[in-house]
């Protein structure tokens, strides 16, 4: 199982609606709007790195109002 935090920048005024829509996507554990350099932080899980990539590129990045994402996989050192 692969877990990741996905940091999302949105268009002005879109953080709450983006967080709500992303929260409905299968594989998303949590989705919250925040302050700072990013507008939404998502925690997601997938069976593999490839599936995580598909989740981000095919599902999350297609949500309207998103301008940029940064995926941070969780590692156990």
Write the layout of secondary structure elements.
Elements: E1 2-10, H1 15-22, E2 28-33, E3 40-46, H2 49-59, E4 66-73
Antiparallel strand pairs: 1-3, 1-4, 2-3
The arrangement of helices and strands along the chain is EHEEHE
Tally of separate domains: 1
| Shape, per Cα inertia axes | globular
Assign the CATH superfamily. Answer: Lrp/AsnC effector binding domain/regulation of amino acid metabolism (RAM) domain
Cα radius of gyration in angstroms: 12 Å
Would you state the CATH class?
Alpha Beta
Q: End-to-end span in angstroms?
A: 15 Å
The CATH topology name reads: Alpha-Beta Plaits
What's this, in brief?
By secondary structure, the chain is α+β, with helices and mostly antiparallel strands. Helix content is 25%, strand content 39%.
Structure description:
The chain is α+β, with helices and mostly antiparallel strands. The chain has a single domain (2-68), classed as Lrp/AsnC effector binding domain/regulation of amino acid metabolism (RAM) domain (Alpha-Beta Plaits, 2-Layer Sandwich). 25% of the residues lie in helices and 39% in strands. Strands 2-3-1-4 form a 4-stranded antiparallel sheet. The longest helix has 11 residues, at 49-59. The protein is globular and about 35 Å long. The two termini are 15 Å apart. Residues 6-74 form the Transcription regulator AsnC/Lrp ligand binding domain. InterPro entries: Dimeric_a/b-barrel, Tscrpt_reg_AsnC/Lrp_C.
């Amino acid at each position: 199982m692969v877990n990741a935090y996905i940091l999302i920048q949105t268009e002005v005024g879109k953080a709450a609606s983006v967080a709500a829509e992303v929260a409905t996507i299968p594989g998303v554990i949590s989705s919250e709007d925040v302050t700072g350099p990013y507008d939404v932080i998502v925690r997601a899980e997938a069976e593999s790195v490839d599936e995580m990539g598909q989740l981000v590129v095919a599902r999350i990045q297609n949500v309207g109002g998103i301008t940029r994402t940064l995926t941070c996989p969780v590692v156990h050192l």
